[in-house]
Amino acid sequence: MNATPVVMITGATSGFGEACARLFAQQGWRLIITGRRQQRLDELQQALGGADRVHTSCFDISDRQAVEQAFADLPDAFNKIDVLINNAGLALGLEAAHETRLDDWEKMVDTNIKGLLYCTRTVLPGMVERKTGYIINIGSVAGNWPYPGGNVYCGTKAFVRQFSLAVRADLLGTNVRVSNIEPGNAETEFSMVRFKDDKNRADKVYQGTIALRAEDVADTVWWLVNTPQHVNVTTLELMPTQEANGPMAFHRE
After folding, report:
1. Which of the residues 118, 134, 147, 153 is marked catalytic?
2. pLDDT tens string 134-166
3. Is 153 a catalytic residue?
């Protein structure tokens, strides 16, 4: 690990990504923060120590060329990444499979799967060469427990789980670790994005319950990074106390 370690966080402008950025900055790390909103990146950069401590990179992770260019443009102080947090992702809509918009399905696949692939593949060779590094993927309980309207979102998060396990197998002997964190119900901008800024629908997701906070997930990421080098937590499912897996669904005539 670098004398001053470097963490790259995708989707750092809100939610889990922003919470991770704030926590790692408090602990003295250098940060590469990415997102699609330059103003938010700039504000976070200034809040967390300025350009010497935080490098911003504004691009859409579903754009392979933009991802590759962003990595090529990293300053020397930031180009040896110790930890990659693949956080950027989204859900769109809650319609049944026969009623949803194909554009929404494609956007989820492009972001949740392809974006994660582009960032991971670009970072891994350097980690393997240095024989150190950590890939932390933000999956979801939706990858394990399907629900009505989840269709492609659930599928993309199931991919994150299996991809994490397979990459972990590929990296055996390299000293590079891989973990998949699977949060449950969490109160962030997630539902506002899913329901296209319909606040009433978004608020109902959290009504009458205590959801996870973004800081809860950031604390979990920090704990993982600080486990001993010989420890690899493969998959970690994280739910609020007021959420649990329910019974099987039945349709009755």
Report:
1. 153
2. 999 999 999 999 999 999 999 999 999 999 999
3. yes
